[in-house]
Amino acid sequence: MFLARVYVTLKPAVNDPQGLTVLGGLHSLGYDAVDDVRIGKYLEIRISGDDLEAAEAAVAGMCDRLLANPVIEDFRFTLEPQ
Amino acid sequence: MFLARVYVTLKPAVNDPQGLTVLGGLHSLGYDAVDDVRIGKYLEIRISGDDLEAAEAAVAGMCDRLLANPVIEDFRFTLEPQ
Questions:
Q1: CATH 3.30.1280.10 fits B2-81, yes or no
Q2: Which among A41, A71, A80, B4 is least surrounded, fewest beta carbons within 10 Å?
């Protein structure tokens, strides 16, 4: 069994209206030291099996095919045995 | 300047319909080894200043007041100087 932690983030050049909205909210609450907010997704995926290389290939495939939009998003992940 | 990486996750007892939908999608794509998917938020927050303790207190306050819903979500964060 493996736990994959997947981080999906907008590419740096892509506008992030959700992040801008949160930035405005934080400024309204008085957190004036905040310069920038970018919002992405964080996924925890549990995968059965004990072949680390197969699990790595599977998670990379999942990200390419479903979890991230390659036009506007980057992804990275870590895998840990459980 | 600090970079805060904030992870907001649903509490374990809370149902995650978005995660269940992704789990179904992954099974449809043939990833049958996937047992569970939980989806959370990942935020990158850039904060000016060079007082680490003040930045930590600020980020914890932001999470409590705006970024996480304490009824259904947990949060954790890391801070790194930039």
A1: yes
A2: A71
